[in-house]
Amino acid sequence: MSFTAFLIMLLCALVVIVASLWFIRHQLQLNKIREEKVKAGEARFLEERQKRIDSIRVLISVAGTDEVNWIEASIRIKHLLDQLSEDLSEHEDISAFYIVAEKTQHIPTHEQWGNLPKSAKMKFRLEMDGYETEYAEHLLRAKTSLMAYDFK
Question: What is the pLDDT of residues 89-114, one digit of tens each?
């Protein structure tokens, strides 16, 4: 092998090494960016989770008052628990929110409520009042239990 051929092979090897080093460095930078995105996503997830937990705590504190009746609180709390992937429907006390939400799921809300005739609204209000009376004690226990519940 001639000296010129050796230098050409050496130069080619150096080019391959430099290209490989650049590629490895580039991949490491991409991995670092991906890792930062994953950490940011996890932080955002935890922040959103905490917002839902805080919303549950606020709802619990005003549930059964003039601000929020038990029916509305139950529906909202169940929805927030579902978003948190917390299934407390089997919990002895907290299940009250699930029971009340399930029993009232057929009742129209928001715009649909506004479009109902007075007689239908009265019928549904009586039904809701009946559920609030029937489950009053269970809902109070659920309120206490959920306030003490540890969302880990």
Answer: 999 999 999 999 999 999 998 889 88
SS3 of 114-133 = HCCCHHHHHHHHHHHHHHHH
Check residue 109 and give its pLDDT: 85
What's the predicted TM-score (pTM) here? 0.79
Instruction: Specify which residues 63 forms β-bridges with.
Output: 68
pLDDT of residue 110: 83
Q: Could you tell me if 70 and 100 are in contact, meaning their C-beta atoms sit under 8 angstroms apart?
A: yes
Q: Is 146 exposed, middle or buried (0-12, 13-18, 19+ CB in 10 A)?
A: buried
CA 15/CA 8 separation, integer angstroms: 10
